Amino acid sequence: MGEQRANLRKPPPVAVRPSPSDPRQGVIRFGAVTLRCALGKGGISAFKREGDGAAPLGRMSILGGYLRRDKRFAAPNRLDLRAIRATDGWCDAASDRNYNRPVRLPYATSAETMRRNDSLYDICLVLDWNIRPRRRGAGSAIFFHLARPGYLPTEGCIAVSRRDMARLLPFLTKRSAVIVRR
């Protein structure tokens, strides 16, 4: 019984590996579940740099995230998700003092728009890549979000279908680990 309680407190890691046939697509293992995902157009990199399009190799935690309440993504969750506003952005300008941090749009330098028209960020989980410590140019806006049709490559994020995100979300917590391997 104690072992079962321990397993409930600490979810299994979200283990991500590239597909053998295409390094821009991947496979997620979460306990006994296997899911398809999209990866960065640059594949996976151990030396992540801003703009390289690669998903970073390594272990990341889920810090929280964003949710489009108007899009009715109704999966239960145990994460700190806030409603996306039209003014929500994420700074991706390596020389800016707010690099790899949330910002208010419009923003003077380059920033990712969080409230998108293409539904990719209807549910968007922020991964702790390059957050603390933050290194200029080491990559920004690394998210776990919804995939484009056909699992087209991302700009360096991990993306799954809406259905698969709804399957995963109830089990994810701030203690969940996303582990990207080669």
Structure in words:
By secondary structure, the protein is mostly beta strands. The chain is 8% helix and 33% strand. The protein is built from 2 helices and 14 strands. It has helices spanning 2-9, 162-168; strands at residues 14-18, 25-30, 33-38, 44-45, 55-56, 58-67, 81-83, 88-91, 102-104, 111-113, 123-127, 143-146, 158-160, 177-180. Strands 1, 2, 3, 6, 7, 11, 12, 13 and 14 form a 9-stranded mixed β-sheet that branches. It has a 3-stranded antiparallel β-sheet with strand order 9-8-10, with no helix packed on it. A hairpin with a 6-residue loop joins strand 1 (14-18) and strand 2 (25-30). 37% of the residues are buried.
H-E order: HEEEEEEEEEEEEEHE
Give the total of beta strands.
14
How much of the polypeptide forms β-strand, as a percent range? 25-35%
Unreliable stretches, pLDDT < 50, 5 or more residues?
A: none
Average pLDDT taken over every residue: 94
Give a short account of the largest sheet: 9 strands, mixed
In whole angstroms, the N-to-C terminal distance is: 35 Å
Rg computed from alpha carbons, rounded to a whole number of angstroms: 16 Å
Q: SS-based structural class? A: mainly beta
Total count of helical runs of at least 4 residues = 2
Shape: globular
User: In total, how many domains does the architecture comprise?
Assistant: 1
Provide the helix percentage: under 10%
